[in-house]
Amino acid sequence: MSHLLSKKKLSENSTMTQNITPESANWQYVGFEAHILKKGESLTVEAGSNEICVVLLYGHADASTKDNTWSNIGDRASVFDQKAPFAVYAPAGDQITYKALMDIELAVCKAPGKTNYPARLIRPEDCQFETRGVGSNVRHVCNVLFGNLAADSLLVCEVITPSGNWSSYPPHKHDQDAAPAETQLEETYYHRIDPPQGFVLQRVYTDDRSLDETMAVEDGDVVMVPEGYHPVGVPHGYQSYYLNVMAGPSRNWIFHNDKDHEWIIERDKKTA
């Protein structure tokens, strides 16, 4: 199995199904966890030296930080509901607690932080939708904590890719700290699939092919992208959801397309 692929883990003694740390991923910035809570269960995430954004993927919950409380948040039964999520952001030194009012799933996004921005509830109306691509390259993006809202390091978005389509395509990368041409950002992909018995394919590769991994990714798996291009293909009959977490030396998403496939963009502009 590829070292870039983290399989979903289920345990009767833990709510956690994924746990990606800078140490386990052998990188510097991004941390990610996924948790499934049953009704009545609670989860507290300590920020420590990180800033954190905990996304309520589905269900209803009460949420709080050290100085704030929000009751009965949530408006999705599934990540495939075509609705933006609720999320809670907290700076370094704070904490976030969720109490499940029904069965819920949480995505915990972490990156180095300071105290430049206060804890806050991110509501669906604070998120930003956009559709990218044409034809079989169409995918639907929801920016949760991206250009729509400020943070120290974190970039968080959701993407739904329809059946038979490609996403993060044409292939692009962001592994060089060379603004304004490109920025260096580590990235995790948390994958969900509908129906859940399906799979998607994700390739991670560099120009010199010193890294070249193609993975069959199942529901609940995480793909880590330390460098290189990272397209996703969705088989016929299934639709794909993934939540991206990115962070690096600067909070700026500037990517570079694979020159071998960039011609597709120009062709699509002419035929649009």
Quick structural gist:
One of its GO terms (biological process) is inositol catabolic process. The protein is mainly beta and 272 residues long. It has two helices and 24 strands.
What is the residue-averaged pLDDT? 96
Radius of gyration: 18 Å
Query: Shape, please?
Result: globular
Specify the oligomeric state.
single chain
CATH classification class: Mainly Beta
Q: What's the helical proportion of residues? A: under 10%
Encode the helix/strand succession as letters. EEHEEEEEEEEEEEEEEEEEEEEEEH
The biggest sheet, with number of strands, parallel, antiparallel or mixed sense and barrel status, is: 9 strands, antiparallel
Structural class: mainly beta
Indicate the low-confidence ranges by residue numbers: none
Which second-level CATH architecture applies? Sandwich
CATH superfamily grouping: Jelly Rolls
> Quick one: how many beta strands?
24
Cα-to-Cα separation, first versus last residue: 40 Å
Strand residues, percent: over 45%
Instruction: Kindly identify the CATH topology.
Output: Jelly Rolls
Q: Tell me the domain tally.
A: 1
Count of individual helical segments = 2
